[in-house]
Amino acid sequence: MEPMWTLLLLCLGLVTGVCAGQARPWKPCTDLLPLDFLSRVLPGGGKALSGVRAVQDRGAKGLQLTGPHEALSFPSSQLFINCPFFPTEFSVVVTLKVSHIAPKKNEYIFTLVEEQSDRMLLGLRYSQDRLHFLFLSPAGRERLTFRAVQLVDNQWHTLVLSISGRYVTLTKDCGIPLELLQEKPFPLTLSTQGSRFYIGSRRRWKGLFSGLMRQLVLLPGSDATSRICPSSNPSLAILSVPSVLLHLPVQPSENEALMYPYEASVRVTLGTLPSCTNSERGQLWFDTLKRGLFICDSVAWVPLLEGRERLDYVEDYQDLYTNSKTFDIEVFQIPSVGLFAAVADWESKPGSGIYKWTDGKFEPYQNISTFQAQAWKYFTVGNKMFLAVANSRGKDEEAQELSVIYKWSPRKQKFLPYQTLVTHSARDWEAFTIQGEAFLAVANHRQGEHNHNINSVIYKWNPGTKVFEVNQTIQTSGAYDWEFFSIGPYHFLVVANTFNGSSTHVNSVIYIWLGGMFQPFQAISTYGATDWEMFQIGNRIFLAVANGQKFYENVPSLYAINSTIYELSTTTKTFLKFQDIVTYSAVDWEFFTMGDEKFLVVANSFDGTSHSLNSVIYRWQGYEGFVPIHRLPTTGCIDWEFFTSTEGSYLIYSSATQPLSKVFKLRTY
């Protein structure tokens, strides 16, 4: 039988190869040139092709298909001239970009189909996180599946699928190859007689490719990875790309319409600002929220037409029922996943809730076990996404107090425990980077019941161990909040000190980064400070402090006191008082902008007799400073967050007295 198998292998010549025994000498498959499928269906001379248009996106052009047109196919006999068998060893190279696909759906990259029976002989398709290679063997339909392959992320990717005997490898963007071992090798005699190659479909609408395709190449006889990798741009590595996709089309001299259908992509915001780099230069973005048209200059989005929105009124939009009373809300966006809100619930069972923005509302998404949680902080280190919770007690009265950092799992689509850190009645986390290094600062409020004068800790990310390690300790007095900010090349960290054991009249301190550590820069007298908010208006730098209460031993507390806005003086190089605002046990300031207008909203929590009182939105009015414009009835309001979605702009607050948070919609005109 050995001579027969050898003869069959020799008969697998393509285009330039011939069967053994014919007059011309046989050339091995490894000498064959790449077979560019896209170039075979695209007409020459820039002529239009029905059902196809060229679209530029992120610095590269690809083909967008509008249907399973016959023009997007060609007979296999154009390739398999001398022998009608598909090669036993080969590579497929494809460069594509896919923005979305419905759950549990598949889309085809290409197929080989028998014309009379409509039977698929071979095909390559993908789903949300998988790539499937299908082929017909003597035993029936076979499917090889690569799992956890992320292609649907609106980015360009180049894949190399290589078949050699029982081994199947997949290389994505010149990365580490994934390998599968088949029980049986790829069939030696897969006949292609009477079949056609279909690009982007299986000859029907179902499973039609919806993304952009830039490259689709069959390389018989060898693994194409070594031909295109390494590459300076691995997601767009080239083996063979049609010339029409390599360059922008040229306008004919007689000023006719472009000979080949061409589009530049127009981005429609999904709630976050798209990136603007050299790859997006010259592209347009229409912001549906601000009703503006912008163009990328490779650095920033420059407005071409922009509607100036103004705040009209505040609408009670959603009642968000929580597991218990809450002390903080953190709103954050996970790219390609969605908008989330994490609330710090007081009760340990069922813990603190994470909610996802779904169809214009926050819906329950995940519960995380916490212990009298006080705050959440979302941050990233490289491409890793984390969520840190500040727990104010241990699992029980005897247990050590531990705060926890959770890491987002793209595979499980939820946050999982990553690192625990010893804290002392922690009130806040602040994450920041300095010169590319990641830091995390915790505000330790007290140790035991009475010791408020303790160290708060600044941790630094260790790229080797991939954990946060102690970098510096700072003496604080009932620390409640950290706020990091930068001014030019200088980096600052300010602490809100609340209580020194006998009085709330305590200096809160601004620290400056010098010599690889934070050193005191300026002390500001505060009264039970609970929050700092840094913001900038034009070239003016401000710091707003929320003062909670005036308390001295044996003297009744005062809750209706001034909170203060400070401005950085270019003369003294220090922060000086700019404006006092009467607040009621203020716990938070939130700065936000809408159009050209700037706002501050304060969380008023207690006036001495009641937790039900108005929290106030203030608008910046230049020389007059911040002026009250809206008074919002709140109950136990302790934190505000501003966020935007495709539906509009919103404010959400958490309540420290009841299991109910509220979302307000900011109506504009």
What would your notes on this structure say?
This protein has 669 residues and is mainly β. 3% of the residues lie in helices and 55% in strands. The protein has four helices and 49 strands. Strands 1, 2, 3, 5, 10, 11, 12, 14 and 15 form a nine-stranded mixed beta sheet that branches. It is elongated. The N and C termini lie far apart (82 Å).
What can be said about this structure in brief?
It is built from four helices and 49 strands.
Q: Are there runs of 5+ residues with pLDDT below 50, and where?
A: 1-31, 248-262
Count of helical stretches: 4
Q: What is the helix fraction of residues, given as a range?
A: under 10%
Q: End-to-end span in angstroms?
A: 82 Å
| Overall residue-averaged pLDDT value | 88
Rg is 31 Å
Number of strands: 49
The share of residues in extended strands comes to over 45%
Structural class of the helix and strand makeup? mainly beta
Main sheet summary: 9 strands, mixed
Shape: elongated
Q: Give the oligomer, counting copies of the same chain as homo and different chains as hetero.
A: single chain
